[in-house]
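Could you help me review a protein record that somebody else here produced? What it holds is a sequence and that sequence's fold in token form. I have pasted the whole thing underneath without changing anything:
=====
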Amino acid sequence: MIFLLLGTEELPFDRAVDRALPLTSDDDLVVQHGFTPPRDDAERISWIRFAAYDRILALCREASAVVCHAGVGTIMTAMSAGKTPLVIPRLARFGEAVDDHQLQISSELARTNMVVHLEDADDIREAIRLTAVSQESRERSVSLHRAVAEAVDDRHWPLSPWDLPLATWLAAA
């Protein structure tokens, strides 16, 4: 299941729905649509206008990918669920926002690899695939770092003078 979050902005965000619709050929799509009108003819889509934070967080955790607008709260929610959000910023020129602050947010967070910024020409399926591979790698890395940190904290673990700098660096990374 792919989770698409459009936020609570009162302006519709049909462009994001258009970008995500092709994904329904392979996956179910759950859309938190807010003020964007749901589409009656779309198959494999569940529409949720608004939901409590706990439900949004649970859907983020359950989803194989989270695609969203560039609202900071939405991005942070997806990240707290362990996802790297694929972000489609709302743009003023399309009447989706009053200014382009979401473009600035998405671009800056993408620069630091915290999100995947989706431009109009980007292949959303390929971005989801790359995000899944990146997320798997990150999870393995976090597991390794935790194991090393636990080993360093274990007072019975023998350390030679050469092991200490490496173990300390790995635990801090």
About this structure: Residues 158-164 have pLDDT under 50 and may be disordered. The CA atoms of residues 37 and 67 lie 18 Å apart. The beta strands are 2-5, 29-32, 45-48, 65-68, 86-87, 116-117. The radius of gyration is 19 Å.
